[in-house]
């Protein structure tokens, strides 16, 4: 075991009274709730990119993050990161991790060199996974950073770029199979357009679907039983991304007959960027039985970009966990912290403090959501609000026994409609009592 964090031991649950910064105050991995341990419920995952490779630079400022695994040589840094990854996972008691191909190994000068760099690192990762008992929640291909992807990957007007993307996806599936990945994610960062003036939108979307179909076919061919996930986002880095939000992505999947092969990986900050709450996105996905996994983070409503902050907004997390509970959990998906430390949290220990904050918030939110469900808090509100559909004319409508003629006859006799107040403020106030 490496020691990039010599002063930090395995993080333990110490309860809400603890003043120890390096302890869980709400997340008790072995606590049993509804017949399962909290660890089994939460399925937490760490994101390689934000934790191991992100350097704290922004468009106006240089790298600030203190990262003792950085070496002069790129492959050496990559190997150090593998060590640090597993030290963090073990000490944070997180079972899963996620990565892009480019996060774990440098590209080198050719695709062949990239492949061999990946092979070398994957070998190390595999060994570490075995010795630590950790698992790969999902992997993906970074098809947005390299300049070849300036006009997109599968949606690029350049067929050579499409081919290169396919080669990255194939390798990603081979790696996923070797490491037993439970999901494979597509996030189309540059699968969008800058202007319609020169864009063939129909061809671009057909091509994205073509790549998805090839991926499904190849996974079958190699016997990689994996859940495919699409991660919607409306914009950034593209001005307009095709997988705008959950509803748009579902329409895409149905259009191309891919709805049985894919579910959604929804991210809180992407929901915000699309002008939705996160719970809205989760509810839409659930209505299609397509909620697969989440990227847990939060945006800043005063900023218009993907700040990927660690989730600490309890209110929003409670509504998130309620949707997940109603979904019957997320497995084989999980809760991936697609979250990065703020630029001013540049220390090595911040990687621990930030994950602890996120895990504590999500765990606390989960327990509140369980209580809301036990008390039938939302169920009762909804039941009461829609009661007119359980008897009389409402029951006839739902049962398909009504038509325009019978309803007209009814309306003529009942045209003095009486509505009931929703008492929204009271509901919100009682909900606050749960927090
Ligand atoms: C970027 C996305 C990305 C995906 C994986 O906004 O969240 O990190 O999760 O490609
Ligand atoms: Ni994400
Ligand atoms: Ni994101």
Summarize the structure in words.
Helices cover 46% and strands 11% of the residues. The strands form 4 sheets. An 8-stranded parallel beta barrel has the order 5-6-7-8-10-12-13-14, surrounded by 4 helices. Strands 1-2 form a two-stranded parallel ribbon. The mean pLDDT is 98. The chain is of the alpha/beta class. α3 packs parallel to α5 and α5 runs parallel beside α6. The protein is built from 16 helices and 14 strands. The chain binds D-xylose (XLS) and nickel (II) ion (NI) (2 copies). D-xylose binds next to loops.
Offer a few descriptive terms.
binds nickel (II) ion; binds D-xylose; single chain; 435 residues; alpha/beta; globular; two-stranded parallel sheet; 8-stranded parallel β-barrel; 16 helices; 14 strands
SSE blueprint:
Blueprint lengths: L11 E2 L9 E2 L7 E2 L2 E2 H5 L1 E4 H6 L20 H19 L3 E5 H4 L6 H22 L2 E6 L18 H21 L3 E4 L5 E2 L7 H21 L5 E4 L9 E2 L4 H10 L6 E6 H6 L4 H10 L3 E6 L17 H13 L8 E3 L11 H26 L2 H9 L6 H7 L5 H10 L10 H11 L1
Parallel strand pairs: 1-2, 5-6, 5-14, 6-7, 7-8, 8-10, 10-12, 12-13, 13-14
Antiparallel strand pairs: 3-4, 9-11
The chain binds D-xylose and nickel (II) ion (2 copies).
Tell me briefly what this model is.
By secondary structure, the protein is an alpha/beta fold.
User: How would you classify the helix and strand content by structural class?
Assistant: alpha/beta
Number of strands: 14
- Output the helix-strand order: EEEEHEHHEHHEHEEHEEHEHHEHEHHHHH
Gap between N and C termini: 40 Å
Radius of gyration: 24 Å
Strand content: 5-15%
Bound molecules: D-xylose, nickel (II) ion
Q: Which strand order do you get reading across the main beta sheet?
A: 5-6-7-8-10-12-13-14
Biggest sheet: strands, sense, closure? 8 strands, parallel, barrel
What is the molecular shape? globular
Summed over residues and divided by their number, the pLDDT gives a mean of 98
Tally of contiguous helical segments: 16
State the low-pLDDT regions, or none: none
Helix fraction bin: 40-55%
């Amino acid at each position: 075991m490496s020691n990039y964090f010599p002063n930090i031991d395995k993080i333990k649950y110490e309860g809400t009274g603890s003043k120890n910064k390096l302890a869980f105050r709400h997340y008790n991995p072995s606590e049993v709730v509804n017949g399962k341990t909290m660890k089994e419920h939460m399925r937490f995952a760490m994101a390689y990119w934000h934790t191991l490779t992100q350097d704290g630079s922004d468009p106006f400022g240089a790298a600030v993050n203190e990262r003792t695994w950085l070496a002069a040589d790129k492959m050496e840094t990559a190997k150090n990161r593998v060590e640090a990854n597993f030290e963090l996972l073990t000490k944070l008691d997180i079972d899963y991790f996620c990565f892009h191909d480019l996060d774990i190994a440098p590209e080198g000068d050719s695709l062949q060199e990239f492949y061999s760099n990946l092979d070398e690192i994957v070998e190390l990762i595999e060994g570490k996974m075995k010795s630590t008992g950790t698992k790969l929640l999902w992997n993906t291909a970074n098809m947005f950073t390299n300049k070849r992807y300036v006009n997109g990957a599968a949606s690029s007007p350049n067929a050579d770029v499409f081919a290169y993307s396919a080669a990255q996806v194939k390798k990603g599936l081979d790696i996923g199979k070797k490491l037993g990945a439970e999901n494979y994610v597509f996030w189309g960062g540059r699968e969008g357009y800058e202007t319609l003036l020169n864009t063939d939108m129909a061809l671009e979307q057909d091509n994205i679907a073509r790549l998805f179909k090839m991926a499904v076919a190849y996974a079958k061919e190699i016997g990689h039983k994996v859940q495919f996930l699409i991660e919607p986002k409306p914009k950034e880095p593209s001005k307009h991304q095709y997988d705008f939000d959950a509803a748009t992505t579902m329409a895409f999947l149905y259009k191309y007959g891919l709805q049985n092969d894919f579910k959604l990986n929804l991210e809180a900050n992407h929901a915000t960027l699309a002008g939705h709450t996160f719970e809205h996105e989760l509810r839409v996905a659930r209505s299609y039985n397509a909620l697969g996994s989440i990227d847990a983070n939060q945006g800043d409503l005063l900023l218009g970009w993907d700040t990927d902050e660690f989730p600490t907004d309890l209110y929003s997390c409670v509504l998130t966990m309620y949707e997940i509970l109603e979904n019957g959990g997320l497995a084989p998906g999980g809760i991936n912290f697609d979250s990065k430390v703020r630029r001013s949290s540049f220390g090595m220990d911040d990687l621990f403090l930030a994950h602890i904050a996120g895990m504590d918030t999500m765990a606390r939110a989960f327990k509140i959501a369980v209580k809301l469900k036990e008390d039938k808090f939302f169920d009762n509100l909804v039941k009461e609000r829609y009661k007119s559909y359980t008897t009389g004319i409402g029951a006839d409508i739902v049962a398909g026994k009504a038509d325009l003629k019978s309803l007209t006859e009814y309306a003529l006799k009942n045209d003095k409609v009486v509505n009931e107040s929703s008492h929204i403020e009271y509901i919100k106030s009682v909900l606050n009592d749960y927090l």
